Amino acid sequence: MSVHPAAIVEDGAQLGDVRLDPYAVIGPEVVLADGVVVGAHAVIQGKTTIGAHTQVGPHAVLGCPPQDRKHDPLTVSRLVIGERNVFREFSSAHCGSTRKDGTTHIGHDNYFMANSHVAHDCVVGSNTMFANSAAVAGHVEIGDGAVLGGLCAVHQFSRVGRLAMVGGGAMAAQDVPPFSIAQGDRARLFGLNIIGLRRAGVDDGAIATLKEAWRMLFVSDLPRRTAQSRVRESMSEVPEVRELLDFLQSSSRGVARAGLPS
Length: 262
Fold this sequence. Notes:
The chain has helices at about 195-200, 205-220, 225-235, 240-250, and strands at about 1-5, 10, 15, 20, 25, 30, 35-40, 45, 45-50, 55, 60-65, 80, 85, 90-95, 105, 110, 115-120, 125, 130, 135, 140, 145-150, 155, 160, 165, 170, 180-185, 190. Strands 1-4-7-10-13-16-19-22-25-27-28 form an eleven-stranded mixed β-sheet. A nine-stranded parallel β-sheet has the order 2-5-8-11-14-17-20-23-26, with no helix packed on it. Strands 3-6-9-12-15-18-21-24 form an eight-stranded parallel β-sheet, with no helix packed on it. By secondary structure, it is an alpha/beta fold.
């Protein structure tokens, strides 16, 4: 363990073999696993648990109460962060609120660039990328491997599916399906994230079927329910197609529409 003399660790904090740089502040209910590094002037408070080998950059703030006027400060509120995450300078993530289970969940191997923000009650998967100043509002779900471009925002209660990409500056007010590219204000869908699919190891045959399903679901003139039914009948043997269909059918906020072809 390496704790700088200028770091502030309040009584009750549970620390593994960690490194705390000058003026890092660790609250009394914080739990840090082995290998966690907390940069200068970073603040970690609340009932926050951080997994092994996570890096918290200078001036990052984790575990603050939710920015929710209806939150009862006397209720349990938590932030649970997995392993090997990177929070760059001035990034932030808040504890959950009383509206759900009181917990904000962040998985493993995520990269949060400078000034990015995860609000209360969010569920962030693993291997995601939040570019500079990307922000997600309360109760948002971000699937594994999703990429959020710089200065983009995701509306509360919306979802971004697995391996989806939300472009820089986009304002996503509805669900962004898995494997999709979304861009604009309000965000529209502009095809499949082919590069992301290939990097994730999805084979060319599955990608070709996804393309066909995409055209039927988002480009054809078929009513969406009819298109979903036909895709499920003819292409559901491909796991990625089933995942896309299940996402669409489980949407409560609505799904972003396809953009106009260029």
